């Protein structure tokens, strides 16, 4: 169940809060400290090592969309229950969209089109993490396999515990990774490192992940990881929400366009945002040597 401010005057926010409180089958969404704007989205199928089931692919974008609309949400921590972060896509489970799509009818063209639609829907489910306007911080422990790496790659900041391992297993399953890892990882760790991981299917440790830039911080234990990520998220949540969301939007836009196009985009963005009340408050607080009080969304 998700905690949150009750009685919101914003109907959309109240509806989002109500839907979060209804809960999820594969996720646990919570706001443990109502004094902060930090929400945790936890993969919550520990008995299955948090393998991504059809229900998970439906619920991840739903949760991200709700948090995107919720004014009290300023930062999101994406974590996992149990000893491992994620075992990748659940294979052979009931309702698997890939199996169902590939077995429809006898027409190979219809089967191929159904499979393509299923893949695009799964891709879109993970892109929802990236699309959420609020920063998403991954907290990885234990094994992070295949689709789990794709989930992590869609996050804005990635941290892990020292026991974490990462592996792109698809090549060993005779398939091409298709949920975004091959597109996002070269931008995160560089083409050479991404090719090494994707073509060999080798498992890397937390420290090697740190060295290549897959994660930015490594903590000694799961307990320290949870505390460290909560601190990062809280620090972000205390900043101007407009500045944080704008920074994420510009970073993503600049990643996918030329430098010139990225500069033009941020100039257009700031033509409006530099007139915000938060900027006036930040300058006033700096001059008066006090903590700023930023506006609500």
Concise overview:
By secondary structure, this protein is of the alpha/beta class. It is built from 12 helices and 9 strands.
Describe the structure.
It is found in: Peroxisome. Belongs to the enoyl-CoA hydratase/isomerase family. Keywords: Acetylation, Fatty acid metabolism, Isomerase, Lipid metabolism, Peroxisome. Pathway: Lipid metabolism; fatty acid beta-oxidation. GO terms for molecular function: isomerase activity. With 297 residues, this protein is α/β, with parallel strands linked by helices. Helix content is 50%, strand content 12%. It is built from twelve helices and nine strands. Strands 1-2-3-4-6-9 form a six-stranded mixed β-sheet, sandwiched between helices. The model is unreliable at 1-7 (pLDDT under 50).
Structural features:
single chain; 297 residues; alpha/beta; six-stranded mixed β-sheet; three-stranded mixed β-sheet; 50% helix; 12% strand
Number of helices: 12
Largest sheet: 6 strands, mixed
Overall pLDDT confidence: 91
Order of helices and strands: HEEHEHHEEHEEHHEHEHHHH
Write the layout of secondary structure elements.
Blueprint: H1 11-22, E1 27-30, E2 38-43, H2 54-69, E3 75-80, H3 97-102, H4 108-131, E4 136-140, E5 143-145, H5 147-153, E6 157-161, E7 165-167, H6 181-189, H7 191-200, E8 204-205, H8 206-212, E9 217-219, H9 222-237, H10 241-255, H11 259-273, H12 277-288
Parallel strand pairs: 2-3, 3-4, 4-6, 5-7, 6-9
Antiparallel strand pairs: 1-2, 7-8
Helix pairs in contact: 1-2, 2-4, 5-6, 6-7, 10-11
């Amino acid at each position: 169940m998700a905690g949150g401010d009750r009685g919101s005057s914003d109907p959309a926010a109240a509806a989002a809060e109500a839907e979060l409180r209804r809960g999820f089958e594969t996720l646990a969404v919570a706001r443990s400290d109502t004094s902060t704007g930090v929400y945790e989205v936890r993969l919550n199928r520990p008995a299955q090592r948090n393998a991504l089931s059809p229900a998970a692919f439906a619920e991840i974008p739903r949760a991200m969309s709700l948090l995107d609309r919720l004014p009290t949400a300023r930062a999101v921590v994406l974590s996992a229950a149990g000893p491992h972060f994620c075992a990748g896509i659940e294979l052979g489970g009931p309702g698997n969209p890939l199996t169902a799509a590939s077995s429809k009818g006898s027409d190979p063209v219809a089967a191929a089109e159904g499979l393509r639609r299923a893949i695009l829907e799964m891709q879109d489910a993970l892109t929802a993490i990236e699309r959420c306007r609020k920063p998403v911080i991954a907290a990885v422990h234990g094994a992070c396999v295949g689709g789990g790496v794709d989930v992590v790659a869609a996050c804005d900041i990635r941290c892990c515990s020292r026991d974490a391992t990462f592996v792109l297993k698809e090549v060993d399953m005779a398939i091409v990774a298709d949920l975004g890892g091959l597109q996002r990882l070269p931008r995160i760790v560089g083409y050479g490192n991404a090719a090494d991981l994707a073509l060999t299917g080798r498992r890397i440790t937390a420290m090697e992940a740190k060295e290549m830039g897959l994660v930015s911080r490594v903590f000694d234990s799961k307990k320290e990881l949870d505390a460290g990520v909560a601190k990062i998220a809280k620090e972000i949540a205390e900043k101007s929400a407009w500045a944080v969301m704008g920074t994420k939007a510009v970073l993503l836009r600049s990643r996918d366009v030329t430098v010139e196009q990225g500069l033009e985009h941020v100039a257009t963005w700031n033509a409006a945002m530099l007139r915000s009340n938060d900027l006036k408050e930040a300058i006033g607080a700096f001059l008066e040597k006090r903590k700023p009080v930023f506006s609500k969304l």
